[in-house]
């Protein structure tokens, strides 16, 4: 991993303090689980849900509006097409899904940052899509391109994040028809981690592919996956032409797509867990099957964005037991299909990075780890039901992602971990602070937060009695102050600049 400064050798406390404060751009490798997945449904329940999903596809069907090309592909594959409605005979969707890979590598421009999505791996990516941002100084406001750039830098500097993400906030000061160019340019130049492409219009998906050809080389892009992008289904059971047009571009070019229903239980799906899982499975199978009709072997992810609804206000709720049940069940369904799984994140409904945000986020993150998620979008920075990207919560969440890494390691049982020598050395009534085993292992023994305060009350009080949000504000400032842009071939940078300038000049600004 690249570092801005090598830690020198030296003795004494000053040297150790200097080493601890050295600027590091180290990024942890994606998580490889050594713990079991939590399986909440037995085989009989899973078979019932799978059978019911087949009934939904065959008898009710799904809609592909304003998309004659998609309807013709389905008709040729053996589906029954009436108007925009596609009814898929029992077993056809599942059979088509079999050509999708069970895992794939997404390449980054820095090969050390490549990620493998699928299997027992977990890749963490930041918040996606909010039109607003919040920080302690400026409060809640519409996002700008400057905010976007800062989030990309924070993601690059965050050790436990493996992926730069996509629309980390929606920069409203840039025309709608051109902002995707600036966002992609930021991900490509301000970070060297993997990133996502634009899906808001098929031509913007094509721009994403074309910019990747500049960054990686045209042949490399055709032979390798360099983007994982989000394709949302308009639940219930509607596949709009814009998203399907973007999916077509990515699939044709061997780029990955998360096929993800957008479920708010009680609004876009039934209030029951089993009913929601049935709809999720039906929608995902139809979407992934369609991607394989476009190109067999196109990489995809079984997605499930799931929340419940407050029946009094109609507002979405997060970190709830029902959402956990659905996520655990969806993970089992994805594994039975041998597909990578996307779900969970730093979900919360709170307006501030407060106790509500922390409780709901902790529930959602742990749920994601235990359910077998392979690609976790929204892993840090999410606030106010996804309307806000919060700078303070971004670093709070990113810090806590370290706990997922350590939990996923499981329990070591080698001779050192058994620690019998330490127990013999200390014996009854002693303590382990100075024993040889502690001295040999203390640096790596426990996960340590880079943000939270563990100091005694008196020290904490003398330092200003700072709460977590205040500490997070200081960490945002430190990370942005320490940021150093990763190197890039000047010729590639020049070509990217020229492409963006040319595409922006080709059409008038539009904010619609």
TrEMBL record:
The keyword Methyltransferase applies. Signal peptide: none annotated. Keywords: Methyltransferase, Transferase. Its EC number is 2.1.1.-. The keyword Methyltransferase applies. InterPro entries: MttB-like_sf, MTTB_MeTrfase. It is an enzyme of class 2 (transferase). One of its GO terms (molecular function) is methyltransferase activity. It comes from the Bacteria. One of its GO terms (biological process) is methanogenesis. Belongs to the trimethylamine methyltransferase family. This is Methyltransferase. It comes from Sulfitobacter marinus.
């Amino acid at each position: 991993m690249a570092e801005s400064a090598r830690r020198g050798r030296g003795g004494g406390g000053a040297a150790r303090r200097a080493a601890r404060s050295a600027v590091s751009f180290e990024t942890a490798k994606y998580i490889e689980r050594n713990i079991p997945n939590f399986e909440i449904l037995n085989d009989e329940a899973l078979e019932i849900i799978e059978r019911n999903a087949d009934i939904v596809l065959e008898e009710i069907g799904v809609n592909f509006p304003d998309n004659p090309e998609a309807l013709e592909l389905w008709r040729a594959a053996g589906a029954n097409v009436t108007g925009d409605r596609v009814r898929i005979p029992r077993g056809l969707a599942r059979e088509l899904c079999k050509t999708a890979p069970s895992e794939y590598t997404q390449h980054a421009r820095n090969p050390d940052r490549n990620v493998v999505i699928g299997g027992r791996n977990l890749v963490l990516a930041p918040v996606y899509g909010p039109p607003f941002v919040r920080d302690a100084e400026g409060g809640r406001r519409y996002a700008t391109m400057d905010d976007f750039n800062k989030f990309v830098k924070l993601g690059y500097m965050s050790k436990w994040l493996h992926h730069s993400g996509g629309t980390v906030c929606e920069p409203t000061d840039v025309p709608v028809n051109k902002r995707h160019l600036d966002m992609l340019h930021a991900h490509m130049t301000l970070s060297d981690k993997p990133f996502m492409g634009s899906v808001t219009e098929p031509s913007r998906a094509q721009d994403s592919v074309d910019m990747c050809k500049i960054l990686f080389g045209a042949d490399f892009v055709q032979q390798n996956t360099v983007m994982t992008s989000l394709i949302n289904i308009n639940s219930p059971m509607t596949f709009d032409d814009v998203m399907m047009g973007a999916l077509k571009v990515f699939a044709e070019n061997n780029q990955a797509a998360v096929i993800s229903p957008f479920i708010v239980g009680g609004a876009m799906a039934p209030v029951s867990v089993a009913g929601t899982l049935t709809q999720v499975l039906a929608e995902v199978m139809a979407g992934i099957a369609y991607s394989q009709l476009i190109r067999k072997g196109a990489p995809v992810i079984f997605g499930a964005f799931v929340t419940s609804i407050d029946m009094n206000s109609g507002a979405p709720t997060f970190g709830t037991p029902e959402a956990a049940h659905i996520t655990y069940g969806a993970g089992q369904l994805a594994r039975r299909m041998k597909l990578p799984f996307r779900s969970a994140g730093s979900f919360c409904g709170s307006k501030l990075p407060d106790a509500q945000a922390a409780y709901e986020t902790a529930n959602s993150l742990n749920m994601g780890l235990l359910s077998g998620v392979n690609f976790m979008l929204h892993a840090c920075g999410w606030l106010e039901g996804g309307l806000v990207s919060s700078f303070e919560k971004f670093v709070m969440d990113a810090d806590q992602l370290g706990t997922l890494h350590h939990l996923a390691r499981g329990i070591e049982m080698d001779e050192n971990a058994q620690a019998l020598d330490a127990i013999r050395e200390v014996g009854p009534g002693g303590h382990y602070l100075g024993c040889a085993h502690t001295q040999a292992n203390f640096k790596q023994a426990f996960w340590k937060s880079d943000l939270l305060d563990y100091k005694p009350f008196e020290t904490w009080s003398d330092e200003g009695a700072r709460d977590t949000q205040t500490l997070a504000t200081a960490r945002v400032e430190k990370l942005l102050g320490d940021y150093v842009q990763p190197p890039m071939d000047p010729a590639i940078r020049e070509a990217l600049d020229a492409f963006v300038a040319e595409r922006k000049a080709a059409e008038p600004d539009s904010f619609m």
